[in-house]
Amino acid sequence: MSFIKSKTIPLVITVIVAIFMLLEYYFPVPGIKSTAKTIRDWAVIIAAFALGLGAANLLRIHSLNIQRRTTGIWPFSIWLIFMLLLFFVVGVTLSIEHTAYKWIYQNGYLVLYASVFSLISFYVITSFYRAMSIRSIETSILIVCAIFAMLKNTPAAVAFWPGFETIGTWLLDVPNASVHRAAILTAAIGSIALSIRVLMGRERAQLAE
Amino acid sequence: MFQRIAELITLLIFGFVMFYEFNRASSSASMPSIRRLPALDAIKEGVGRAVEMGRPVHHSMGQGQLTRNAEQTLVSASVLEYVAGLTASLGADLIVTVRHPEVLPVAQEIVRESYLGAGKPEAYETKMVRYLSSTQWSYVAGVMGIMQREKVAANILIGAFFADCILFAEAGSRVGAIQIGGTAGFGGNLAFLAVCCDYCLYGEEIYAARAYLTKDVFQIGGIRAQDICKLLMTGLIIVGLLLYNYSDWLYVLLSM
Fold it and tell me: With a cut of 0.95, is the ipTM above it?
């Protein structure tokens, strides 16, 4: 029974599933399509079960925080568990279409979600400030290019000297686009190579091996 | 239809090159060396620093799932195996944050096995691997909070990251963590990581991580196969460019 304990079965499942997904794309005949659809449905079911596993992990870790009175964390853990249970109870008893659930969602969740998202604008400025310190020839080139790219989008600067737009556009369309395309191409080849390694059973990171 | 046939032929060629290189790797005594990747070398430095400071190491599994952006999640898992092995042997605290619940058991298993492999199964704790949220910005908020509260000494961000990576990296900067990033996504994401991290893996470099860290002959064979495929693609592009631009001349030349 050692093969059950070993990772042979998950590996075989991975390879079979990968082969079916490939076959569905290249040979979309009814038999293969229906099997691939069944596999995809199973993936959704497994992901749904995994969500329960995630919730259990959250509850366990935050219960431990409360139990141990972890400094600076345990009050937030109480709040997290309270909100988790609130969403669960209201959602299950009243349904997620109910006004009460929508109210909690919009006022307790969406506002925070939008706030975190909006932090990007501030952090872009701080990271830009960090990047703009001249340390080497490369960073100096970066700064000059960034200035042109910025001024290209500034109407007052373009009105002052149209060259900003010409040079900025050239920088974006020629050196930037060519490097970008080369990087996308090589990353795509790397991705394909890794997928083939999975298909051949040589890549086993998903099996913790 | 023609596009799919072309894709299938390309895939078969890639598969053949891979197969050939794997066979060659198993029989060949000498394997090519991989060029130095400072970002991966810096992981040891980061874990060592965490031990000295008595602060934890944070590893993010990224925003990828096992179905979408799976290849980058697998890379992150490979790096996690190495990081967990180091934290286990050097005695640093480890925090792994997970966005998608299906990645959670994979990360847990990797960390548990790494601690077992290092001969310290008792040092493994459930709270090391933390599921935070399935939604993007909630996960970001959770990670930022952990970094701020637990004052991580090293922040490892290798995997699929989107616009959020700037928030992870900036939060790490604020607590003075050594930051190692890497993603194969090209939007502004990689630029954000490049600017905010001390060390960065650019694009395809992340796919070489497992080979670089494990020195496994099959993995190195895979990297060589990848390079051969890259050369083939470059050749095809050059041929395509010549045919596109000079097909009239070629026609005249052939009809002479």
Answer: no
Chain A residues with beta carbon closer than 8 angstroms to that of B100: 47, 50
pLDDT at position A4 is 56
Using CA coordinates, name the residue in chain A closest to B135. A113
The model's confidence at residue A93, banded by pLDDT at 50, 70 and 90, is: very high
Which residue type sits at A56?
A
Per-residue b or e along A66-102, where b marks 16 or more CB atoms closer than 10 Å to that residue's CB: beeebeebbeebeebbeeeeebeebbeeeeeeeeebe
Of A52, A70, A88, the position where a domain reaches its end is A70
Q: Do A130 and B126 touch (CB under 8 A)?
A: no
Nearest to B62 by CA among B197, B156, B194, B202: B156
Question: How far apart are alpha carbons B85 and B182 in whole angstroms?
Answer: 20
pLDDT(A130) > 60: yes
Range of the domain at A39: 1-70
Q: Does residue A178 fall inside a structural domain?
A: yes
Q: Do B101 and A54 touch (CB under 8 A)?
A: yes
Across the interface, do A57 and B218 touch by the CB < 8 Å criterion? Answer: no
Residue in chain A nearest B207 by alpha carbon? A190
Q: Is residue A56 part of a domain?
A: yes
Number of domains in chain A: 2
**Using N-to-C axis directions, what is the helix angle for A137-152 and A163-171, rounded to 10°?**
120
